[in-house]
Amino acid sequence: MTTADTDGEHSATDGGATGTGGTAGSATGTGGGGRTFGDIRIGSVRGSAVGFGDHHHIVNAPRGEASCDPAYEELLEAVRQLAADLERVVPGPEVQALSNELASAQDEIQRTGRAGVGRLARMRALLQDASASIGMLASGVAVGQAVGVLLGG
Q1: Would you kindly state where each structural domain of the chain is located, as residue ranges?
Q2: What predicted TM-score, i.e. pTM, was given to this entire model?
């Protein structure tokens, strides 16, 4: 199967079991069971799921937050609070870098229920870099403490 994305359109081609195929959006060939594949063209698909071939089971449900252990839930809440507080701080390069990392961490924890060790280490370093700007924010201290617990020190 080949997919192509050009100018917002998604096209799919299935060359069949023989491996013969044409250009994106058009294929002919004989697949299993002697069937012949014709043109397959999909316009714009957003917020949906599409499956090709036999025996597919498609589930298209809203994605919720992944469940996580209490330490990550505490970190997530602290990250949210610090991100909100940073909106009121004069933005400098250190604050901007920390803000970007907090947004990525929040997304990762919501999707997977945890944050990787590398991300936690980056957050710790960025907290230290931005300490002059955020030193008086209780939310910054809370994130630092939560990261320290998860990194073991």
Answers
A1: 1-61, 70-151
A2: 0.56
